[in-house]
Amino acid sequence: MKIKLTCKITLAIFMLVIIVSLPLHTAFAATAKEINVSVDVSLDRFIKEVKGANEFLKAAKGVLVIPNVIQAGLIIGGEYGEGALRIGGQTVDYYNVTAASLGYQIGAQRKDVILVFMDEAVLKKFRNSDNWQAGVDGTVTIMEYGAEGSIDTTKFKQPIVGFVFGQKGLMAGAMIQGSKFTKLKK
C-alpha cells in the first residue's frame, strides 16, 4: 500500500516537472493587442479597488502590469503570465513572468501583478536587462493596502513597489521574490 502511494507521488512530481519545464510562452502566447486589453482591464480594476491607486500610478516612472498570472503547484510549482510595461500611459515593452518553487504547496490560482517603478535609474536597469529577477536584480516591496483599501503615495518611498491583487483560486500567498521577468518581442 505504501509503495503504491510513493509511486503515485513520484509520478505526480515527474508529470509536474515536465509540465513546468515546457515552454509556456509558446503555449499561452498572447498577441500585443490581447495583452494591452488585459492590462487596461487590470489597471481599471486596480484603480477602482484601491483608493489612491490613480495618484500612485501617476507618480510612477513606469508601471509593469502582468494580468492573469497562473500559479499552480503540487510540491513543485510554477507560474506564468504576460504583460506590458507602460511609461506615461503608453506601452513601451512586453514582458513575461516565470517562477518555479519547491516545497509544501498544492493548488492553483490566478492573480494580477503590478510593479510600480518609482525611480528612473531602477527602471532603466530593468529595461536594459534580458532576464530581470526580483530579489536578485532589484528588491520589490509588496504593498499591502489596509482594510479600507487605500494607499498613500507620500509615505511610500521605495524604488519598486509591487501589488498582487485579484487572487482567485486555492493557493494563498503574494510572493514576487524569485520571479523572473523577460522582455518579449511582440
**Proportion of strand residues:** 35-45%
| Biggest sheet character | 6 strands, mixed
Are there runs of 5+ residues with pLDDT below 50, and where?
18-27, 170-174
Q: How many individual β-strands?
A: 6
Q: Order of helices and strands, N to C?
A: HHHHEEHEEEE
Q: What oligomeric state best describes the polypeptide chains here?
A: single chain
Cα-to-Cα separation, first versus last residue: 51 Å
Q: Mean of residue pLDDT?
A: 77
Q: How many separate helices?
A: 5
Cα-based radius of gyration, to the nearest Å: 17 Å
Helix and strand content put the structural class at: alpha+beta
Number of domains: 1
Tell me, what's the shape?
A: globular
The percentage helix is 25-40%
Give a verbal description of the structure.
The chain has one domain (2-184). 30% of the residues are buried. It is globular, with a radius of gyration of 17 Å. Mean pLDDT is 77; it is low at 18-27 and 170-174. The protein is built from five helices and six strands, in the order H-H-H-H-E-E-H-E-E-E-E. Strands 1, 2, 3, 4, 5 and 6 form a six-stranded mixed sheet that branches. It is of the alpha+beta class. 31% of the residues lie in helices and 40% in strands. A hairpin with a 2-residue loop joins strand 1 and strand 2 (90-117).
